[in-house]
Amino acid sequence: MKHLHPEEQYLDMLQLILDTGSERVDRTGVGTKAIFGHTMRFDLSEGFPVFTTKRVFWKTAFKEMLWMLSGGSNIRELVQQNVHIWSDWPYKKFIDAQPEGSADKSLSMAEFEQRVLDSDTFAEKWGDLGPVYGKQWRHWRTEDGKEIDQISQVVDLLKNNPSSRRILFDGWNVGELDQMALPPCHKHYQFFVDPNTQKLSGAMVQRSADGFLGQPFNVANLAFLTTLLAEQTGYGVGEIVWFGMDVHIYMNHIQQVNEQLQRQPKTFPKLVIKRKPNSLFDYTIDDFELDGYDPHPAIAAPVAV
In what order do the strands lie in the sheet with 236-250? Predict the structure, then answer.
């Protein structure tokens, strides 16, 4: 089925979950409506897929991706950039660890983040998320103690063996899942160079997709990463393909989803890269602009932790 606007794929998915999703009790206790197995494709030559039916805070999304590409696994680097999307997990862990009646038991999120910023020792102990995305992508530990930089391997293959079927990286390190604040939701990435067009396409498999809050970030970041890899390795941009497994809407997001479904998509913006550094790992958020991004207003919703 051809959509008039590529974002309609996303709105149709939300509607499908509302109409046919099974109600399930989940890890967070909030409950979800969920479907299993869903695909969306976006042609990057037709605009950059930052959804427009509600404002997506794309700088926050891009900062998160750049943090992952750096190998980061501590919230300190994010909080320093005014990004708070990972703070809920270590904050909850800290509060749960405090004895009843202690002053720290009632520490606010803002106070917790300030301590992470102010104290190296506190940040190391309480700001660390364990071996999450960036650690696995850049420093996958082998049995003999060595580390594998999966992202650098992807760059090397794109430059030197673009027909390889092994241009991929994973975050799902089974031996370290129990050490992570949250096991990877977007767990597998793979890339494909079309020899006829010399365009790079990227795909991502997401085991668990928060359809309302998280997924717009995930799609934008897949497009962002694919675009950066293309620029660094000399290709044009092709498609991104998103594969969702457990795709769900939290029960306390249903009202917000219904509000979003009343809105009409607007034209996708264009990603402008103002500076091309020598390495994939040397970009900063100031290198990017979204030209023509004019979304509908943001719709607030609680995060399930």
Answer: 22-24, 32-43, 236-250, 199-210, 186-194, 168-170
With tokens 């930089």, the residue in question is: 149
pTM here? 0.95
Domain that holds residue 207: 8-72+147-291
Domain shared by 79 and 65, yes or no:
no
* Phi/psi at 42 (5° precision): -135, 125
46 has which bridge partners?
none
> Number of helices and strands (H, E) in the chain?
10, 10
CA dist 140 and 148 (Å) reads 5
Sign of the CA dihedral 131, 135, 140, 141?
Answer: negative
In a domain, 3, yes or no: no
DSSP state of 165: S
Q: Is 279 exposed, middle or buried (0-12, 13-18, 19+ CB in 10 A)?
A: exposed
Question: Do residue 162 and residue 279 come from a single domain?
Answer: yes
Closest CA to 126 of 137, 138, 136, 113: 113
CATH number at residue 194: 3.30.572.10
Render pLDDT for 51-73 as a digit per residue (tens, 0 to 9). 999 999 999 999 999 999 999 99
pLDDT-derived band at 27 (thresholds 50, 70, 90) equals confident
The answer to whether residue 299 is domain-embedded is no
The closest alpha carbon to 164, from 172, 153, 173, belongs to 153
Q: Identify whether 275 is a catalytic site residue.
A: no
Residue 304: per-residue pLDDT: 72
Q: Spell 95-118 as b/e; 16+ CB within 10 A means b.
A: eeeeeeeeeeeebeeeebbebbee
Are both 178 and 80 inside the same structural domain? no
Whether residues 160 and 249 share a domain: the answer is yes
Catalytic pick among 185, 193, 213, 240: 185
Q: Domain for residue 266, yes or no? A: yes
